[in-house]
Design brief:
The chain is α+β, with helices and mostly antiparallel strands. It has one domain: 2-Layer Sandwich (Alpha-D-Glucose-1,6-Bisphosphate, Chain A, domain 4). 38% of the residues lie in helices and 31% in strands. The chain contains three helices and five strands. It has a five-stranded antiparallel sheet. Strand 4 and strand 5 form a beta hairpin. Helix 2 packs across helix 3. The longest helix is centred in the C-terminal third of the chain and has 20 residues. The protein is elongated.
């Protein structure tokens, strides 16, 4: 093998080993929206209870904006995720609940969907129990 071909092969191997993580976080998050037959104020209170019941730590909340920010705890499967719940009235007795779960690290990305599923299941149960 010629020296130039050896150098080219070495450089290609080096460059392929130096790939970086994607700069976009689109693949590090999951988003889902659902409509509920309840006023936004009711869903906000129930969402705060749901977050607490799941063991997530509320880092910020704004009842007038219908916004809740929470962090999930670190586990053996995840470094923890950041979850945002946004509640908006869509009709007098209907509200849209949008949940976004973002990974803090590119590990176990399916945890975002699991977080959203757990939240909606618990919120639906809390709504039915009220």
């Amino acid at each position: 093998m010629s020296l130039s071909r050896l150098l080219l092969t070495s450089m290609l191997l080096f460059l392929s080993a130096c790939q970086t993580a994607p700069t976009s976080t689109d693949n590090l998050q999951a988003v889902e929206e659902r409509t509920f037959d309840a006023p936004a104020e009711t869903l906000y209170r129930l969402s705060i209870d749901t977050v607490a019941g799941l063991g997530w730590a509320v880092s910020d909340s704004d009842p007038s904006a219908g916004l809740i920010e929470a962090g999930t705890p670190a586990t053996m499967k995840s470094f923890g995720n950041q979850v945002t719940v946004q509640i908006t009235a869509s009709a007098p007795e209907k509200s849209l609940v949008k949940v976004t779960s973002r990974s803090r690290r590119a590990v176990r990305l399916e945890m975002n969907k699991t977080n959203i599923t757990q939240f909606y299941q618990a919120l639906s149960q809390n709504l039915a129990d009220r």
